Amino acid sequence: MAARNSHKQKILIVDDSEMNRSILADMLGEEYSCIEAANGQQAIELMSLYGDKLGLVLLDIVMPVMDGLEVLKIMNERKWIQDIPVIIISADNASDSIERAYELGATDYIRRPFDVHVVRRRALNTIMLYGKQRALKGMIEENLNKRQQEQTLIISVLGHIIEFRNGESGRHVTNVRTICEILLNALSEYTGKYDLSPDEISLITMASVLHDVGKISIDSELLARTDKLSAKENEVLKSHTLLGAEMLDKLPVGNNEPLVKKAYEICRWHHERWDGNGYPDGLKGEEIPLSAQVVGLADAYDTLTGRRAFKEVYSHSKAVDMILSGEYGSFNPVLLEVFRSVSDKLRTQLRLHSLDRDDGVKSLAESAVETDSVSSRTLDLLDAEREKNRFILSHSNEILFEVYANPVGIRFSDESAKRLGVKPYVTAPATDADMINCFGKENVKTIEKLFREATREKPSVCLKCAATFDGKQVGCTVTALKQYIRNPETGRFICSGAVGKIDVEE
Q: What is the DSSP letter of 6?
Protein backbone atom coordinates (compact mmCIF):
# COMPACT_ATOMS: atom_id res chain seq x y z
CA MET A 1 0.00 0.00 0.00
CA ALA A 2 1.35 3.43 -0.88
CA ALA A 3 0.40 7.10 -0.99
CA ARG A 4 1.43 9.92 -3.27
CA ASN A 5 1.48 13.56 -2.12
CA SER A 6 -0.52 13.63 1.12
CA HIS A 7 -1.39 17.36 0.72
CA LYS A 8 -3.84 16.75 -2.14
CA GLN A 9 -7.36 15.31 -2.16
CA LYS A 10 -7.00 11.60 -1.40
CA ILE A 11 -8.18 8.83 -3.76
CA LEU A 12 -8.03 5.18 -2.73
CA ILE A 13 -7.26 2.81 -5.62
CA VAL A 14 -8.27 -0.80 -4.86
CA ASP A 15 -7.15 -3.42 -7.40
CA ASP A 16 -5.29 -6.71 -7.06
CA SER A 17 -3.24 -5.84 -10.17
CA GLU A 18 -0.30 -3.62 -9.26
CA MET A 19 -0.03 -2.52 -12.87
CA ASN A 20 -3.66 -1.33 -12.93
CA ARG A 21 -3.09 0.58 -9.69
CA SER A 22 0.07 2.15 -11.04
CA ILE A 23 -1.60 3.23 -14.31
CA LEU A 24 -4.53 4.82 -12.46
CA ALA A 25 -2.14 6.53 -10.04
CA ASP A 26 -0.20 7.92 -13.00
CA MET A 27 -3.45 9.22 -14.56
CA LEU A 28 -4.59 10.94 -11.37
CA GLY A 29 -1.34 11.63 -9.53
CA GLU A 30 -0.96 15.26 -10.64
CA GLU A 31 -4.33 16.34 -9.20
CA TYR A 32 -4.78 13.88 -6.34
CA SER A 33 -2.93 11.93 -3.65
CA CYS A 34 -3.33 8.27 -4.59
CA ILE A 35 -3.41 5.61 -1.88
CA GLU A 36 -3.32 1.96 -2.94
CA ALA A 37 -4.74 -1.32 -1.66
CA ALA A 38 -4.22 -4.75 -3.24
CA ASN A 39 -7.46 -6.29 -1.95
CA GLY A 40 -10.70 -5.46 -0.16
CA GLN A 41 -9.37 -6.17 3.32
CA GLN A 42 -6.55 -3.66 2.93
CA ALA A 43 -9.09 -1.18 1.54
CA ILE A 44 -11.31 -1.49 4.63
CA GLU A 45 -8.28 -0.94 6.89
CA LEU A 46 -7.36 2.22 4.99
CA MET A 47 -10.96 3.49 5.05
CA SER A 48 -10.96 2.98 8.82
CA LEU A 49 -7.72 4.97 8.99
CA TYR A 50 -8.66 7.88 6.71
CA GLY A 51 -12.49 8.00 7.01
CA ASP A 52 -14.17 10.81 5.09
CA LYS A 53 -10.76 12.33 4.31
CA LEU A 54 -10.98 10.06 1.27
CA GLY A 55 -12.49 11.97 -1.62
CA LEU A 56 -13.09 8.88 -3.76
CA VAL A 57 -12.58 5.12 -3.96
CA LEU A 58 -11.82 3.44 -7.30
CA LEU A 59 -12.81 -0.17 -6.65
CA ASP A 60 -12.20 -3.38 -8.58
CA ILE A 61 -14.88 -6.10 -8.25
CA VAL A 62 -12.90 -9.35 -8.64
CA MET A 63 -10.10 -9.52 -6.06
CA PRO A 64 -8.52 -12.03 -3.67
CA VAL A 65 -9.08 -12.03 0.11
CA MET A 66 -12.16 -9.77 -0.15
CA ASP A 67 -13.86 -8.74 -3.40
CA GLY A 68 -15.35 -5.38 -4.29
CA LEU A 69 -18.96 -6.33 -3.55
CA GLU A 70 -17.98 -7.41 -0.03
CA VAL A 71 -16.22 -4.06 0.43
CA LEU A 72 -19.42 -2.27 -0.55
CA LYS A 73 -21.42 -4.41 1.91
CA ILE A 74 -19.09 -3.45 4.75
CA MET A 75 -19.20 0.21 3.72
CA ASN A 76 -23.00 -0.01 3.96
CA GLU A 77 -22.88 -1.74 7.35
CA ARG A 78 -20.60 0.96 8.72
CA LYS A 79 -22.49 3.72 6.86
CA TRP A 80 -19.30 4.87 5.10
CA ILE A 81 -21.01 4.68 1.72
CA GLN A 82 -22.94 7.85 2.64
CA ASP A 83 -19.73 9.89 2.85
CA ILE A 84 -17.21 8.10 0.63
CA PRO A 85 -18.12 7.85 -3.09
CA VAL A 86 -17.18 4.69 -4.99
CA ILE A 87 -16.55 4.25 -8.70
CA ILE A 88 -16.33 0.63 -9.86
CA ILE A 89 -13.41 0.10 -12.26
CA SER A 90 -13.26 -3.43 -13.64
CA ALA A 91 -13.00 -5.57 -16.75
CA ASP A 92 -15.85 -7.65 -15.32
CA ASN A 93 -18.86 -6.39 -17.29
CA ALA A 94 -21.31 -9.00 -16.01
CA SER A 95 -24.58 -7.09 -15.67
CA ASP A 96 -25.53 -8.81 -12.40
CA SER A 97 -22.26 -7.78 -10.71
CA ILE A 98 -22.57 -4.19 -11.91
CA GLU A 99 -26.24 -4.02 -10.92
CA ARG A 100 -25.41 -5.39 -7.47
CA ALA A 101 -22.63 -2.79 -7.09
CA TYR A 102 -25.09 0.01 -7.86
CA GLU A 103 -27.59 -1.46 -5.38
CA LEU A 104 -24.87 -1.34 -2.71
CA GLY A 105 -24.22 2.35 -3.34
CA ALA A 106 -21.58 2.57 -6.08
CA THR A 107 -21.79 5.95 -7.81
CA ASP A 108 -20.42 5.09 -11.23
CA TYR A 109 -18.78 2.34 -13.34
CA ILE A 110 -15.78 2.59 -15.67
CA ARG A 111 -14.69 -0.40 -17.70
CA ARG A 112 -11.09 -1.31 -18.46
CA PRO A 113 -9.08 -0.57 -20.60
CA PHE A 114 -8.88 2.92 -19.13
CA ASP A 115 -9.50 6.15 -21.00
CA VAL A 116 -7.52 8.83 -19.19
CA HIS A 117 -9.99 11.63 -19.97
CA VAL A 118 -12.99 9.59 -18.82
CA VAL A 119 -11.25 8.56 -15.58
CA ARG A 120 -10.19 12.12 -14.74
CA ARG A 121 -13.55 13.72 -15.59
CA ARG A 122 -15.66 11.20 -13.68
CA ALA A 123 -13.34 11.33 -10.68
CA LEU A 124 -13.58 15.15 -10.60
CA ASN A 125 -17.37 15.19 -11.02
CA THR A 126 -17.92 12.62 -8.28
CA ILE A 127 -15.60 14.33 -5.81
CA MET A 128 -17.25 17.73 -6.43
CA LEU A 129 -20.77 16.29 -6.01
CA TYR A 130 -19.95 14.54 -2.75
CA GLY A 131 -18.08 17.61 -1.51
CA LYS A 132 -21.24 19.72 -1.86
CA GLN A 133 -23.32 17.02 -0.18
CA ARG A 134 -20.89 16.83 2.75
CA ALA A 135 -20.95 20.60 3.22
CA LEU A 136 -24.76 20.67 3.27
CA LYS A 137 -24.95 17.69 5.60
CA GLY A 138 -22.44 19.30 7.95
CA MET A 139 -24.46 22.50 8.19
CA ILE A 140 -27.66 20.58 9.00
CA GLU A 141 -26.08 18.25 11.55
CA GLU A 142 -23.90 20.79 13.33
CA ASN A 143 -26.58 22.08 15.68
CA LEU A 144 -28.34 18.72 16.05
CA ASN A 145 -25.16 16.94 17.14
CA LYS A 146 -23.70 19.60 19.43
CA ARG A 147 -25.62 18.54 22.55
CA GLN A 148 -25.05 14.84 21.92
CA GLN A 149 -21.32 15.42 21.42
CA GLU A 150 -21.11 17.25 24.73
CA GLN A 151 -22.94 14.40 26.49
CA THR A 152 -20.69 11.81 24.85
CA LEU A 153 -17.56 13.69 25.90
CA ILE A 154 -18.73 13.91 29.52
CA ILE A 155 -19.65 10.20 29.59
CA SER A 156 -16.33 9.20 27.97
CA VAL A 157 -14.30 11.27 30.42
CA LEU A 158 -16.21 9.76 33.33
CA GLY A 159 -15.65 6.29 31.90
CA HIS A 160 -11.91 6.81 31.71
CA ILE A 161 -11.82 8.24 35.24
CA ILE A 162 -13.51 5.02 36.39
CA GLU A 163 -10.93 3.03 34.44
CA PHE A 164 -7.96 4.74 36.10
CA ARG A 165 -9.59 4.41 39.51
CA ASN A 166 -10.23 0.69 39.00
CA GLY A 167 -6.74 -0.15 37.69
CA GLU A 168 -8.15 -1.40 34.38
CA SER A 169 -6.22 -1.49 31.12
CA GLY A 170 -6.06 1.85 29.34
CA ARG A 171 -8.49 0.86 26.58
CA HIS A 172 -11.04 -1.31 28.40
CA VAL A 173 -13.87 1.25 28.29
CA THR A 174 -13.22 2.06 24.62
CA ASN A 175 -12.96 -1.61 23.68
CA VAL A 176 -16.20 -2.56 25.45
CA ARG A 177 -17.97 0.26 23.68
CA THR A 178 -16.60 -0.80 20.27
CA ILE A 179 -17.51 -4.46 20.83
CA CYS A 180 -21.03 -3.50 21.92
CA GLU A 181 -21.57 -1.42 18.79
CA ILE A 182 -20.44 -4.23 16.48
CA LEU A 183 -22.52 -6.86 18.33
CA LEU A 184 -25.66 -4.71 18.41
CA ASN A 185 -25.49 -3.83 14.72
CA ALA A 186 -24.93 -7.47 13.79
CA LEU A 187 -27.67 -8.62 16.19
CA SER A 188 -30.17 -6.27 14.58
CA GLU A 189 -29.36 -7.71 11.13
CA TYR A 190 -29.05 -11.35 12.23
CA THR A 191 -32.59 -11.85 13.53
CA GLY A 192 -35.92 -10.08 13.68
CA LYS A 193 -36.12 -11.05 17.34
CA TYR A 194 -34.30 -7.89 18.40
CA ASP A 195 -35.50 -4.83 16.52
CA LEU A 196 -32.89 -2.23 17.42
CA SER A 197 -33.01 1.27 16.00
CA PRO A 198 -29.79 3.26 15.43
CA ASP A 199 -30.74 5.50 18.37
CA GLU A 200 -31.13 2.48 20.68
CA ILE A 201 -27.76 1.09 19.57
CA SER A 202 -26.13 4.47 20.20
CA LEU A 203 -27.77 4.72 23.64
CA ILE A 204 -26.55 1.29 24.77
CA THR A 205 -23.00 1.82 23.49
CA MET A 206 -22.79 5.20 25.24
CA ALA A 207 -24.17 3.79 28.50
CA SER A 208 -21.75 0.84 28.35
CA VAL A 209 -18.85 3.02 29.51
CA LEU A 210 -20.48 3.20 32.93
CA HIS A 211 -20.75 -0.57 33.43
CA ASP A 212 -18.18 -0.60 36.26
CA VAL A 213 -19.00 2.77 37.85
CA GLY A 214 -19.77 0.98 41.14
CA LYS A 215 -16.09 0.10 41.58
CA ILE A 216 -15.53 3.71 42.61
CA SER A 217 -16.95 2.69 45.98
CA ILE A 218 -14.67 -0.35 46.35
CA ASP A 219 -11.47 -0.03 48.40
CA SER A 220 -8.60 0.83 46.03
CA GLU A 221 -6.28 -1.67 47.77
CA LEU A 222 -8.72 -4.49 46.99
CA LEU A 223 -8.97 -3.40 43.35
CA ALA A 224 -5.16 -3.35 43.08
CA ARG A 225 -4.68 -6.83 44.53
CA THR A 226 -2.81 -9.29 42.25
CA ASP A 227 -3.11 -12.41 44.45
CA LYS A 228 -6.12 -14.67 44.87
CA LEU A 229 -9.02 -13.08 46.75
CA SER A 230 -10.85 -14.75 49.62
CA ALA A 231 -14.54 -15.65 49.28
CA LYS A 232 -15.46 -12.61 51.38
CA GLU A 233 -13.28 -10.29 49.27
CA ASN A 234 -14.83 -11.69 46.10
CA GLU A 235 -18.28 -10.85 47.43
CA VAL A 236 -17.13 -7.29 48.13
CA LEU A 237 -15.82 -6.99 44.58
CA LYS A 238 -19.07 -8.38 43.15
CA SER A 239 -21.01 -5.72 45.04
CA HIS A 240 -19.89 -3.14 42.46
CA THR A 241 -22.96 -4.08 40.40
CA LEU A 242 -25.40 -3.02 43.14
CA LEU A 243 -23.30 -0.03 44.18
CA GLY A 244 -23.23 1.34 40.63
CA ALA A 245 -26.97 0.82 40.16
CA GLU A 246 -27.66 2.56 43.46
CA MET A 247 -25.50 5.54 42.48
CA LEU A 248 -27.45 6.02 39.27
CA ASP A 249 -30.82 5.45 40.90
CA LYS A 250 -30.12 8.11 43.54
CA LEU A 251 -28.87 10.82 41.19
CA PRO A 252 -30.41 14.11 42.35
CA VAL A 253 -31.41 14.96 38.76
CA GLY A 254 -31.71 13.03 35.52
CA ASN A 255 -32.32 9.53 36.88
CA ASN A 256 -35.34 9.22 34.59
CA GLU A 257 -33.33 10.06 31.46
CA PRO A 258 -33.10 7.16 28.94
CA LEU A 259 -29.29 7.14 29.15
CA VAL A 260 -29.32 6.83 32.95
CA LYS A 261 -32.00 4.11 32.88
CA LYS A 262 -29.97 2.12 30.36
CA ALA A 263 -26.80 2.60 32.40
CA TYR A 264 -28.67 1.32 35.48
CA GLU A 265 -29.61 -1.91 33.63
CA ILE A 266 -26.04 -2.40 32.50
CA CYS A 267 -24.43 -1.63 35.88
CA ARG A 268 -26.70 -3.94 37.84
CA TRP A 269 -27.01 -6.90 35.49
CA HIS A 270 -23.97 -7.15 33.16
CA HIS A 271 -22.65 -10.05 35.29
CA GLU A 272 -25.91 -12.03 35.09
CA ARG A 273 -25.73 -15.18 32.99
CA TRP A 274 -28.21 -16.90 30.66
CA ASP A 275 -28.47 -20.04 32.86
CA GLY A 276 -29.17 -18.07 36.04
CA ASN A 277 -25.72 -18.57 37.56
CA GLY A 278 -24.68 -14.92 37.43
CA TYR A 279 -25.01 -12.14 40.00
CA PRO A 280 -26.35 -10.11 41.80
CA ASP A 281 -29.98 -11.20 41.27
CA GLY A 282 -29.64 -14.59 39.56
CA LEU A 283 -31.68 -13.48 36.54
CA LYS A 284 -32.16 -16.08 33.82
CA GLY A 285 -32.65 -15.96 30.04
CA GLU A 286 -34.63 -13.02 28.71
CA GLU A 287 -35.13 -11.74 32.25
CA ILE A 288 -31.73 -10.12 31.68
CA PRO A 289 -32.09 -6.85 29.68
CA LEU A 290 -30.51 -7.10 26.25
CA SER A 291 -28.26 -4.13 27.00
CA ALA A 292 -26.76 -5.97 29.99
CA GLN A 293 -26.40 -9.21 27.99
CA VAL A 294 -24.40 -7.47 25.25
CA VAL A 295 -22.20 -5.48 27.65
CA GLY A 296 -21.61 -8.65 29.70
CA LEU A 297 -20.33 -10.48 26.63
CA ALA A 298 -18.21 -7.51 25.52
CA ASP A 299 -16.75 -7.17 29.02
CA ALA A 300 -15.98 -10.92 29.13
CA TYR A 301 -14.11 -10.87 25.80
CA ASP A 302 -12.04 -7.77 26.62
CA THR A 303 -11.25 -9.07 30.11
CA LEU A 304 -9.95 -12.34 28.64
CA THR A 305 -7.84 -10.69 25.93
CA GLY A 306 -6.77 -7.56 27.85
CA ARG A 307 -3.81 -7.16 30.15
CA ARG A 308 -4.63 -7.39 33.85
CA ALA A 309 -2.15 -7.74 36.69
CA PHE A 310 -4.13 -10.63 38.17
CA LYS A 311 -4.73 -12.85 35.13
CA GLU A 312 -3.31 -14.52 32.06
CA VAL A 313 -3.73 -12.79 28.69
CA TYR A 314 -5.53 -15.06 26.23
CA SER A 315 -5.29 -14.90 22.45
CA HIS A 316 -8.29 -13.81 20.40
CA SER A 317 -9.03 -17.37 19.23
CA LYS A 318 -8.67 -18.82 22.74
CA ALA A 319 -10.96 -16.16 24.23
CA VAL A 320 -13.57 -16.80 21.52
CA ASP A 321 -13.41 -20.57 22.16
CA MET A 322 -13.75 -20.06 25.93
CA ILE A 323 -16.83 -17.87 25.51
CA LEU A 324 -18.50 -20.11 22.90
CA SER A 325 -17.86 -23.24 24.98
CA GLY A 326 -19.37 -21.71 28.11
CA GLU A 327 -16.08 -21.75 30.00
CA TYR A 328 -16.56 -18.09 30.93
CA GLY A 329 -20.26 -18.35 31.76
CA SER A 330 -23.50 -18.91 29.89
CA PHE A 331 -24.71 -16.39 27.29
CA ASN A 332 -27.75 -16.02 25.05
CA PRO A 333 -27.37 -18.61 22.19
CA VAL A 334 -28.50 -16.05 19.61
CA LEU A 335 -25.94 -13.56 20.91
CA LEU A 336 -23.24 -16.25 20.79
CA GLU A 337 -24.03 -16.98 17.14
CA VAL A 338 -23.69 -13.29 16.34
CA PHE A 339 -20.46 -13.14 18.35
CA ARG A 340 -19.08 -16.08 16.36
CA SER A 341 -20.00 -14.45 13.05
CA VAL A 342 -18.34 -11.10 13.87
CA SER A 343 -15.36 -12.40 15.87
CA ASP A 344 -12.88 -11.69 13.04
CA LYS A 345 -14.33 -8.21 12.62
CA LEU A 346 -13.93 -7.60 16.36
CA ARG A 347 -10.26 -8.51 16.24
CA THR A 348 -9.64 -6.31 13.19
CA GLN A 349 -11.56 -3.33 14.56
CA LEU A 350 -9.90 -3.44 17.98
CA ARG A 351 -6.52 -3.78 16.32
CA LEU A 352 -7.24 -0.75 14.13
CA HIS A 353 -8.27 1.24 17.20
CA SER A 354 -4.99 0.34 18.85
CA LEU A 355 -3.15 1.70 15.78
CA ASP A 356 -5.04 5.00 15.93
CA ARG A 357 -2.63 6.17 18.61
CA ASP A 358 0.47 5.18 16.64
CA ASP A 359 1.55 8.30 14.76
CA GLY A 360 4.28 6.29 13.06
CA VAL A 361 1.76 4.00 11.38
CA LYS A 362 -0.31 6.91 10.15
CA SER A 363 2.77 8.79 8.96
CA LEU A 364 3.96 5.77 7.02
CA ALA A 365 0.56 5.32 5.37
CA GLU A 366 0.53 8.98 4.30
CA SER A 367 4.14 9.21 3.07
CA ALA A 368 4.39 10.61 -0.43
CA VAL A 369 6.23 9.17 -3.45
CA GLU A 370 7.30 11.66 -6.14
CA THR A 371 6.68 10.37 -9.70
CA ASP A 372 6.92 11.55 -13.28
CA SER A 373 3.83 11.41 -15.52
CA VAL A 374 4.65 7.75 -16.23
CA SER A 375 6.47 6.11 -13.35
CA SER A 376 9.34 3.64 -13.66
CA ARG A 377 7.24 1.19 -11.67
CA THR A 378 4.52 1.27 -14.35
CA LEU A 379 7.12 0.66 -17.07
CA ASP A 380 8.53 -2.30 -15.15
CA LEU A 381 5.06 -3.70 -14.68
CA LEU A 382 4.28 -3.29 -18.38
CA ASP A 383 7.47 -5.17 -19.26
CA ALA A 384 6.44 -7.94 -16.88
CA GLU A 385 2.98 -8.02 -18.47
CA ARG A 386 4.46 -8.36 -21.95
CA GLU A 387 6.70 -11.18 -20.76
CA LYS A 388 3.70 -12.92 -19.21
CA ASN A 389 1.66 -12.63 -22.38
CA ARG A 390 4.49 -13.99 -24.51
CA PHE A 391 4.79 -16.95 -22.16
CA ILE A 392 1.03 -17.66 -22.23
CA LEU A 393 0.88 -17.42 -26.02
CA SER A 394 3.76 -19.86 -26.40
CA HIS A 395 1.78 -22.63 -24.67
CA SER A 396 -1.56 -24.24 -25.31
CA ASN A 397 -4.55 -22.53 -23.79
CA GLU A 398 -5.68 -25.43 -21.54
CA ILE A 399 -5.74 -24.40 -17.87
CA LEU A 400 -4.16 -21.04 -17.07
CA PHE A 401 -3.41 -19.61 -13.65
CA GLU A 402 -1.67 -16.70 -11.93
CA VAL A 403 0.27 -16.80 -8.66
CA TYR A 404 0.23 -13.75 -6.41
CA ALA A 405 3.17 -13.04 -4.13
CA ASN A 406 1.56 -10.75 -1.53
CA PRO A 407 -0.70 -12.10 -0.21
CA VAL A 408 0.19 -15.56 -1.51
CA GLY A 409 -2.58 -17.06 -3.61
CA ILE A 410 -3.45 -18.68 -6.96
CA ARG A 411 -6.18 -17.48 -9.33
CA PHE A 412 -7.82 -19.83 -11.83
CA SER A 413 -10.48 -18.99 -14.37
CA ASP A 414 -13.97 -20.00 -13.20
CA GLU A 415 -14.14 -22.83 -15.74
CA SER A 416 -10.68 -24.13 -14.86
CA ALA A 417 -11.48 -24.05 -11.15
CA LYS A 418 -14.69 -25.96 -11.76
CA ARG A 419 -12.92 -28.69 -13.75
CA LEU A 420 -10.17 -29.03 -11.13
CA GLY A 421 -12.60 -28.93 -8.21
CA VAL A 422 -10.91 -25.94 -6.54
CA LYS A 423 -11.94 -22.35 -5.75
CA PRO A 424 -11.26 -19.63 -8.37
CA TYR A 425 -8.95 -17.92 -5.89
CA VAL A 426 -7.00 -20.17 -3.53
CA THR A 427 -5.34 -18.65 -0.48
CA ALA A 428 -2.57 -20.59 1.30
CA PRO A 429 -2.43 -23.16 -1.56
CA ALA A 430 0.09 -25.38 0.28
CA THR A 431 -2.53 -26.24 2.90
CA ASP A 432 -5.75 -25.81 0.91
CA ALA A 433 -7.90 -28.97 1.16
CA ASP A 434 -9.19 -28.70 -2.43
CA MET A 435 -5.69 -28.29 -3.87
CA ILE A 436 -4.45 -31.27 -1.87
CA ASN A 437 -7.45 -33.33 -2.98
CA CYS A 438 -6.80 -32.41 -6.62
CA PHE A 439 -3.01 -32.81 -6.83
CA GLY A 440 -2.10 -34.82 -3.72
CA LYS A 441 -0.26 -33.50 -0.67
CA GLU A 442 3.23 -34.47 -1.84
CA ASN A 443 2.76 -32.93 -5.29
CA VAL A 444 1.53 -29.67 -3.75
CA LYS A 445 4.61 -29.60 -1.50
CA THR A 446 6.90 -30.33 -4.47
CA ILE A 447 5.37 -27.56 -6.58
CA GLU A 448 5.74 -25.10 -3.70
CA LYS A 449 9.37 -26.15 -3.21
CA LEU A 450 10.20 -25.78 -6.91
CA PHE A 451 8.56 -22.37 -7.01
CA ARG A 452 10.42 -21.22 -3.90
CA GLU A 453 13.76 -22.36 -5.34
CA ALA A 454 13.24 -20.74 -8.75
CA THR A 455 15.36 -17.63 -9.35
CA ARG A 456 15.38 -14.68 -11.73
CA GLU A 457 18.11 -16.41 -13.71
CA LYS A 458 16.13 -19.70 -13.78
CA PRO A 459 12.51 -18.64 -13.32
CA SER A 460 10.76 -21.67 -14.88
CA VAL A 461 9.06 -24.39 -12.84
CA CYS A 462 7.91 -27.71 -14.34
CA LEU A 463 6.46 -30.86 -12.74
CA LYS A 464 4.77 -33.95 -14.15
CA CYS A 465 2.20 -35.37 -11.76
CA ALA A 466 -1.29 -36.81 -11.40
CA ALA A 467 -4.35 -34.67 -10.78
CA THR A 468 -8.12 -34.92 -10.53
CA PHE A 469 -9.61 -33.37 -13.66
CA ASP A 470 -13.36 -33.46 -14.44
CA GLY A 471 -13.67 -35.91 -11.57
CA LYS A 472 -11.10 -38.34 -13.03
CA GLN A 473 -7.49 -39.08 -12.09
CA VAL A 474 -5.25 -38.08 -15.02
CA GLY A 475 -1.63 -37.26 -15.73
CA CYS A 476 -0.68 -33.62 -16.21
CA THR A 477 2.23 -31.21 -16.48
CA VAL A 478 2.32 -28.09 -14.34
CA THR A 479 4.45 -25.29 -15.81
CA ALA A 480 4.99 -21.84 -14.32
CA LEU A 481 7.15 -18.79 -14.87
CA LYS A 482 8.22 -16.82 -11.80
CA GLN A 483 8.14 -13.04 -12.43
CA TYR A 484 10.25 -10.24 -11.02
CA ILE A 485 10.00 -6.44 -10.89
CA ARG A 486 12.53 -3.88 -9.68
CA ASN A 487 11.98 -2.38 -6.24
CA PRO A 488 12.06 1.40 -6.90
CA GLU A 489 13.58 2.12 -3.48
CA THR A 490 16.40 -0.45 -3.45
CA GLY A 491 16.86 -1.09 -7.18
CA ARG A 492 16.77 -4.84 -6.50
CA PHE A 493 14.47 -7.27 -8.28
CA ILE A 494 11.72 -8.84 -6.17
CA CYS A 495 9.24 -11.61 -6.99
CA SER A 496 5.87 -10.21 -8.06
CA GLY A 497 4.18 -13.60 -8.59
CA ALA A 498 4.01 -16.06 -11.45
CA VAL A 499 1.97 -17.14 -14.44
CA GLY A 500 1.46 -20.72 -15.50
CA LYS A 501 -0.61 -23.46 -17.10
CA ILE A 502 -1.56 -27.07 -16.61
CA ASP A 503 -1.41 -29.44 -19.59
CA VAL A 504 -3.74 -32.39 -19.07
CA GLU A 505 -2.87 -35.64 -20.85
CA GLU A 506 -5.55 -37.03 -23.16
A: T
